[in-house]
Amino acid sequence: MKRNLLLGVVALAVLGAGAAWLLTAPQRLGDDVLASLPKGDARQGEVVFWAGGCASCHAAEGAQGDDKLKLGGGLQLVTPFGTFTAPNISPHRQDGIGRWTRAEFANAMKTGTGRAGQHYYPAFPYTSYARMSLEDVADLQAYLLTLPAVAGDAGPHELAFPFNIRRGLGLWKRLYLSDAPVVPEPVSEAGVPVDRALFDRGRYLVEGPGHCGECHTPRNAIGGPDKNRWLAGAAAPTGDGVIPNITPSDNGLGSWTTEDIAYYLETGFTPEFDAVGGEMVAVQENMARLTARDRTAIATYLKAIPTH
Question: Were both Cys, which of 120, 125, 197, 262 would link to 112 (CB 3.0–4.6 Å)?
Answer without folding.
Answer: 120
